[in-house]
Amino acid sequence: MSRPISRFTLANLLILIGLIAAELGALRAGTDFAERLSFTFTLAALAVGLLGALVRRGDAAWIGFALFGWGCALLYVVPSLGERVNQHLITTELLDEIVVRLHPQVPELALPTFNNAQVTSSMGEIGNIIMFNKSDFPYRNLLSPAENKALDNYFDQRQSYDSQMMAIRQKQRNSRRVGQSLLTLILALIGAVLGRFLGNRRESVATNANEVRGVDVAHQPITSGVQSL
Q1: Please, what's the b/e burial string for 87-122 (b: 16 or more CB within 10 A of its CB; e: otherwise)?
Q2: What is the mean pLDDT of the chain?
Q3: 149/66 Cα distance (integer angstroms)
Q4: 3-state class of 79 per DSSP?
Q5: In this structure, are residues 6 and 197 in contact, taking their beta carbons and an 8 Å threshold?
Q6: What is the pLDDT of residues 95-109, one digit of tens each?
Q7: What is the dihedral of CA 215, 217, 220, 225, to 10 degrees?
Q8: CA neighbor of 183 nearest in space, from 89, 69, 62
Q9: Average confidence (pLDDT) over 58-83
Q10: pLDDT of 67 above 70
Q11: Which tens digit of pLDDT belongs to each residue from 107-145?
Q12: How far apart (Å, rounded) are the C-alpha atoms in residues 181 and 204?
């Protein structure tokens, strides 16, 4: 009994490529809605792939899609598995680099300088100044009016800077999740194409073998009738 020829058609491939294009747009946007939409599309595509693999048993394209797609998705859905595997994959570093380039961090603020040696020594490391707010900086009385004004400007800018950094980090997290969904679909597409290629090749080999056997049977000499005579 011959297995069914792959029915993962060109239309299926175009739909999948369209989903990948939508994922690329979501990767650039980095919004919460884009991340949720990306995850929904990917989960729906994987569910359809699994259904196709179950309904069309023996269809190598659907099996390849489901196998490659769900295999990649498990690395991102199961934390314990992903922690052991993702750090060794080149795609992880590549995705991080893409996310940073799409949503770069804003330059750090220039810290104010103080002429008072006591303030400078008391502040110590640069990071100490970010522990204070505009209203509770303890060395106001040791600063000149110009230094106090520069300090006020720094704290005002830092409030805006912190808000921008929070928004950028959220976009980076969303884009990273979208990138994981995108990699899942791309790998599923590779699995489908590879499965279709191998499935069609297997069918071609089987067809050629059947044709060869048919030719051999047709050319067998008929000896039974001659012997009976």
Answers
A1: eeeeebeebeeebeeebeeeeeeeebebeeeebeee
A2: 79
A3: 62
A4: helix
A5: no
A6: 999 999 999 988 877
A7: -140
A8: 69
A9: 88
A10: yes
A11: 877 767 777 666 666 664 445 666 666 667 777 777 788
A12: 34
Question: What is the spatial distance between Cα 3 and Cα 201, in angstroms, rounded to a whole number?
Answer: 12
Query: Three-state DSSP class for 197?
Result: helix
CB 92 within 8 A of CB 86: yes
Q: Which two tokens stand for residue 104?
A: 């770069």
**And the tokens for 148?**
């106090």
Which tokens go with 16? 């999948």
User: Which residues, in sequence order, are CB contacts of 151 under 8 Å at separation 6+?
Assistant: 112, 134, 137, 140, 143
Cβ distance 158 to 112 under 8 Å? no
For the chain, counts of helices (H) and of strands (E): 8, 0
CA 171 to chain centre: 14
Cα angle at 97 between 161 and 176, to 5 degrees? 75
End-to-end CA distance of the chain: 38
Q: Among candidates 187, 182, 188, which has minimal Cα distance to 35?
A: 182
Q: Given the structure tokens 């006591």, which residue do they identify?
A: 118
